[in-house]
Write a structure and sequence with these properties.
By secondary structure, this protein is α+β, with helices and mostly antiparallel strands. The chain is 23% helix and 33% strand.
């Protein structure tokens, strides 16, 4: 029976097989990719793990933006409370990668085996037999009722543009995607919309500045977004037909340079939610 590898550091335990993070015995809610990032760090505790190594370990051969790794590190730092627990502190080495300070202890544990009383085994056997029969009948009934096989899922790229494309937002009808594109040779990213049947994307942002966080109105007729320019940031709404663009609010410029989206509509389309802070 395979042993479990557990990594212990501060009040935390990371189960390598189950990919579960515990704090003082209680599960910590983080994404699977964040746990896999943490696992790569604790397996190399005390050493700098390069960004390239982390991306290859967590995402394999997939092409992903470095911002995904940055977001995972931010999620882990919040979950670990690294300022409170020195052993869980994740250090940044600019231009290289990250390191968890530790110390980290790796232990192996045998899964517990529970022996049942002989008198109860026959009852359990009968119960599981009934469950198995029910499962077989249920499966047969589901197959019998199925009129056609499910459609296969196919992936294909929507765009192939030179540069960096990020922050995709799909329209409510699923026909178009808004995204931010920093073209090769350009200094600032712009806001674009690509339809599934369009031969080329359409630029929404025509003003000077850098753009972020595209968000579709619930009716799909307009886009809200953040524009950074000079020493300030602004929330704008532009119609898809190009007939109207208006500023809604002014923000602190502290969201500049962050890859995540910071803006969204309410379901009824009456209000916009945005995160904003001075620091």
């Amino acid at each position: 029976m395979e042993t479990r590898r557990l990594y212990k550091f501060g009040p935390f335990v990371l189960d390598a097989q189950a990919k579960v993070l515990l704090k003082e015995g209680q599960p910590v809610r983080v994404t699977k990719k964040a746990v896999e990032t943490l696992l790569a760090l604790v397996e190399n505790a005390g050493q700098v793990v390069t960004k390239e190594q982390l991306i290859a370990t967590v995402w394999g051969n997939r092409v992903v933006d470095e911002a995904n790794l940055t977001q995972n590190i931010a999620v882990l730092r919040r979950a670990l409370g690294h300022e409170e627990h020195p052993a869980a502190r994740i250090e940044t080495f600019p231009g290289r990668g990250y390191r968890i300070t530790g110390p980290v202890e790796m232990v192996r544990e045998q899964p517990a085996v529970v022996a049942e009383a002989p008198a109860r085994r026959s009852l359990h056997w009968l119960a599981w037999s009934a469950v198995a029969v029910a499962a077989v009948l249920s499966g047969w009934w589901s197959v019998a009722r199925r009129s056609a096989p499910p459609a296969e899922f196919h992936r294909q790229p929507l765009t192939r543009l030179a540069g960096k494309e990020y922050q995709p937002a799909v329209s409510p009808d699923g026909e178009r995607t808004a995204f931010v594109w920093l073209a090769d040779g350009k200094q600032a990213p712009g806001l674009w919309v690509q339809g599934a049947q369009d031969s080329a994307p359409k630029r929404i942002s025509t003003m000077e500045g850098e753009f972020s966080s595209p968000a579709w109105a619930p009716d799909g007729r307009s886009l809200a977004y953040i524009r950074f320019g000079g020493a300030q940031a602004e929330v704008w709404i532009s119609s898809l037909d190009g007939t109207e663009s208006r500023i809604i609010a002014r923000l602190f410029p502290t969201r500049y340079g962050l890859q995540g989206r910071h803006l969204d509509w309410s379901p009824d389309g009456r209000t916009l939610a945005v995160d904003d802070t001075e620091s």
